[in-house]
Amino acid sequence: MMIEGGARARLLQRIRRRPDGRGPRLVVAVTGGIGSGKSTVTRGLARAGAVVADADAIAREVVEPGTEGLAAVVERFGDSVLDARGGLDRGRLADLVFSEAGARADLDAILHPLIAERAWTILDAAPEGSLAVYDIPLLVETDSAALFDAVIVVDAPDDARIERLAARGVDRADARRRIGAQADRDQRLAIASIWIDNEGSIADLDALTGRIIASWLV
Ligand code: ADP
């Protein structure tokens, strides 16, 4: 089944319903590589009334000063990851994670459970009968697709993604490197219920998002 416009969507897998009877809200993950357009799709779903949890925003919240998350990061990586004001020095942490084998896994083991707990608090609080949406770039990497009723994957050609990111001020070489470090199309294809090719304009994508809601998600 396919919806077309300047952007296209395909229904690849049946939309699952939560099997444990925890209420008829539909919980949908939106994922895709950097610059694919997933935040734009998520905003469209929010405009239609969806309750949204944003993994990137939550990832920052769980290491704010005074949090259990920041304390755990400092315990593992030392005081040098703190800036002068006691906040997390992300550049310093990134350097440590990059230079030490096993450090990435340790950091993920600290942060991922905290992020997931906060996200599910938001998603589970969505009213019955509503649409709850988790904007999660690392759905493949965290192996959590099975937790959702449906997975929307947003994709666009790499060149288009790089140009869109460059328009947002991201260095092209950096964008290319980050795309290369993420999960690839085949891995995302394997978990997609709905696949969006974001090849048209933003207006096309917004219109398509509306048709996806009307056709498949309510
Ligand atoms: P992601 O959340 O996947 O990184 P965004 O939704 O933030 O992607 O989109 C990346 C950038 O590309 C944003 O500046 C967005 O406005 C822009 N963008 C998204 N879709 C399109 C499109 N179809 N045409 C042009 N620009 C787009």
Point out poorly predicted stretches: none
| Bound heterogens, unique | adenosine-5'-diphosphate
Q: Please give the share of residues in helix.
A: 40-55%
The CATH topology of the largest domain is given as Rossmann fold
State the end-to-end distance. 16 Å
Number of strands: 7
Overview of the molecule:
It contains nine helices and seven strands; from the N terminus they run βββαβααααββαααβα. It folds into two domains: 1-50 and 130-218, 3-Layer(aba) Sandwich (Rossmann fold), CATH 3.40.50; 57-129, 3-Layer(aba) Sandwich (Rossmann fold). With 218 residues, the chain is an alpha/beta fold. It has a seven-stranded mixed sheet, with helices on both faces. Helix 1 (38-47) crosses helix 9, helix 3 (68-77) packs antiparallel against helix 5 and helix 6 (158-167) packs across helix 7 (172-181). Bound molecules: adenosine-5'-diphosphate (ADP). The site of adenosine-5'-diphosphate (ADP) has 15 residues, from helix 1 and helix 9.
